[in-house]
Amino acid sequence: MIRVTAFTAFALAAFALNSVLCRLALRDGEADAAGFTGLRLLAGAVALAAIFYCRGPRMSRGATRNLDVMPLRALRHSGSWISAFFLFAYAACFSFAYLGLTTASGALILFGTVQTTMIAIGIIKGERPSLLEWLGFIIAFGGLVYLVIPGLASPPLINALLMAAAGMAWAAYTLRGKGSDDPLADTTGNFIRSVPMAVLIVVLYFPNLHLSGRGIVLAIISGAVTSGIGYTVWYAVLKDHSWTRVAVLQLSVPVIAAAGGAVFLAEAFTTRLVIAGAVILGGIGMTIIGRRPVT
After folding, report:
1. 193: which DSSP letter?
2. Closest C-alpha to 21, from 204, 264, 279, 188
3. Which of 103, 116, 138, 201 has its CA 20 to 30 A from that of 283?
4. pLDDT tens digits along 208-222
């Protein structure tokens, strides 16, 4: 239980720190969005491949160890191109969105969209929401709409839409990872498969590519630690939590990110952000409380 609690806390803190690290790099011109995305995914792939190599592949039940097979060859069957695409889509939309969002507003839109997407997928799969669930869903969605509608304190619409897209991609990535038997292998495989996609976006934006020394360090930390290791740990603990608990736990990320933005970036809270945050989190909380038990 202590292990699960510690790993969960680390993963959630890592999610929030990704927002802080990205904003630190982009706001101060230490990196461009494409360069930060590419280096982040590459750093995650290299770090995870090194960790996987040192650990070695796990043998499935009934299998025998072949000492002639290099550990990294096992990654051919780990992860998937679909999951890698969702990982890349999340990372790319995330970076470009933060060109115009504060740490807090970005995290709120991201994880508000994550929860809304997961709830919507449940409905599509045939779940029958209770009245309280429907009410909470409508309130949470209304909070997101309120946050991004035109106004002096609202975030730029294009950036908000990009972060919403990142949230939908992250929700899909999380849903695909819940049944992982080997989180490290699957996360490593996904990151490695995402590298060619990252190279493509770097090539497309090559004329505007910019990475300072500090930007490189921030991207590497974000890729190797708060993304690569953080996502592996998240994959590892997903099986120990119900979907309801997963939803509740992720509600803490915007709060942690907002605190990080205030401490490291001196970002202020706007009235719109506070109101929208309360409405979104309250609506999602109602949905979780009202969720019918599975029979």
Report:
1. H
2. 264
3. 103
4. 899 999 999 999 999
